[in-house]
Each structure stands twice: as structure tokens, then as C-alpha cells.
Amino acid sequence: MSASRTFGIAMRANTTVAPRRCSHEPVDEAALLITCLRGLPCIVPEDTNWELLLDLARENGVLLLLQQALLALGADVPGFFRDAAAECRAAAERLAGELECLLRGFQGLHVEALAFKGPTLALALYGDVTLRSSNDLDLLVRHDDFLRCEVWLINQGFIALGPASEHDRRFVRDGLLVELHFELAAYRDFPLDVDGIWRRSRPADFCGQFVRAMSDIDLVLYLCAHGLKHGFSRLIWILDVARSLHGWHRNAYEEMMRQARRQGLEPHLLIGCEVVRSMFPQQLPEALDAVIIMSPKAAKRARHAAARLFSENLEVVINDFRSFYLQAEPGALKRWRYRFGYLGPTYTDYLWARSHRIYPGLMVILRPFRLLHKYGLGRVWRVLFPEQ
């Protein structure tokens, strides 16, 4: 169940007291999950559907965080729930061990790697590599080092899953998926300044291995962009943004806003902040809120876009980050540039052209027709011209 659906049904219950029973929808368990993650006091009902609560926590990537909150409440957690949490913790520990080995190998190549998401993010935001579960490892290396790292991974028994994309290449070995990046994302989607991220990055330590970490501001901007790309459809992505914003001085929040504007990421940042406000209002710092209200028009647009993420009318809402960006971007010229960029050919379009022996230059014309064929006129229109 997505974060938007979980939030929608939870809000129909009083999340500060023992939830009421409902025979048709999992209102009680969703409300309990939200309340625990908010850190609010509550009573865990004796008739809690623990199987359903476990499924909700797994789907939203917050099982160990939920268990931590339940133990703090003194809840009588059933054995199968504890076993599932232990299995999740063990998987996270194994992934951390794999990352440690990769970093050691890259050090042997004299390659600096910037680890993001996964165990390093868990350690940075939650203080424990096991508290944030992940399914793969993401490593950013510089363009000049990418080929050497590819060769090294293959020599270590990894198998490449296809050619490199516009920003990464995926490798797998014994079920372990490694995404080796030379860019954080396709630039047409998010204008993340990877060279600037490298310059602003800082040295860090992960289990005794050298690694580079994003600056605090870059991490927030990346998490907002990544969460928006996926429609903030998992609670862990919202919690990540909330945790990354803690403990700053007001002048640091102001600098974050300035940097977001310079990079064209202000709508992504503001939507991320408004999503945190909607789901975990207690965790949005007051000093940041004071900075946000200094841009009332941009903040209003972001609130409107964030509200759509939690709409229950799922047949109407198009879960496409482009429409949310266009809804939050205050500049008309930037909105039109973004629309034209969306209609421009992508790396996937060029692969399709090559597989069909079509001259690549024709994709400038064919791209809009491919979009219409795949999504239909109605969806494309709603993405490019969302309700304001």
C-alpha cells in the first residue's frame, strides 16, 4: 500500500488514541503506523491485525523503525513480527558488509566513491545501518573513473544488466544489485549539478572504509528530487527528507533555498517540505517553516501539488513527478521549457530507434507520438497542463 493510500485511510481515524475497528479498510493499522512513526503516544489495541501492520511497514520500508517505536511504547509484539524484523535487520547488515567490500575494492583502484541511499544513508540519518532497509547499493564515481570501476565489477563476478544508461549502469551478482552512477539522475528529469556535488562533498567513514558523502544541502535536494520522482509513494522517502532537515540553523535553511533556486530545484524542495508537513508535521523544523513563508506564492503552489499526492481520487491523479513539478514551478518560462524538454527524445527513445533501425534524428519528431501511443492524449495533457 502506498504512502498516499496509507495516509488517506489513517486520516479518517483519530491517530492519537487507540484506533477504532473497521471491517472494510485497514484504518486502524494505518493509523497506528503513522502515529508510531510520528513519535506520538498511543495505545496499541489488543486486537491489532499484526499481519496487516507488518505488510504496511514492509511496503513502506519502515519495519525496523516501527518495531523501534513499538518497543518504546512497551507493546506486546508477536513472535512472527519480531522474526520478520530480525530478518530485515540481518539483510541490512549483509548489505552493509557488501558495501564495505566494494568501497575497499574501489580504494584499491584509487577511486573515490560517493555512496548514497542504502546503508550510508541509514547511518547518516538514523544512526544505524540496519534501521533503513534497502534492496540495492548505489555508488557515484567520477566520469573518468567509471570505465575502470565497470571492469573491476565484472572481474569480481558481477554481470552487467544491459548497457549504460544516461546516468548509470546496473550490475548483479548472487542477487546483489549494484547501480554504478556517473550522474545521479537523467538531467532532463532533475538538474542535479553532479560536479558541484563532488566539490561540496566531504570525506566520511563507513565501517572503517573511506567514502565521500554529499553536503547536507545537496542531500536534502537529492532526497526531495528522488522522492518526487517516485511520487513519495513510500513513507521511508518522506521520513528521509524529514530527518535530513533536522538540526540546522536558520541561515543554513536560507542558503539551502538560495542553492535550490540557483539549480532550478526550488519546486522539488518545497514539495518535499510540504509532504513532510502533511505526513509528519511535528518533524518540520520551525526555523525552516519561517524561511518557507518568505516565498508565499511558491509555497502555496507547492502545497497544492503536495495535496494531490495524498488525494484519494487515484483515477484522476496522475502519479507523475512532471505534473507535480509543473504545478509547483512559479515561472511560466521555466514551465514551458520543462514541457518542451519532456517532449524531447530520451536515451530509451534512441535505443528503441536503434532496435527498429530508425534514423536517430527522427526521434525529435517521433517522441511525441510515442508518448501519445503509450499514455494517451488525456494523461499526457494532464501531465503537461496540471490543474493549478
TrEMBL record:
Pfam families assigned to the protein according to its UniProt record, in alphabetical order = NTP_transf_5
Stored InterPro entries: NTP_transf_5
Q: Which domain of life is it from?
A: Bacteria
Its name, as the record gives it, is Nucleotidyltransferase family protein
Q: Which organism is it from?
A: Acidicapsa dinghuensis
Q: What is the lineage of its organism?
A: Bacteria, Pseudomonadati, Acidobacteriota, Terriglobia, Terriglobales
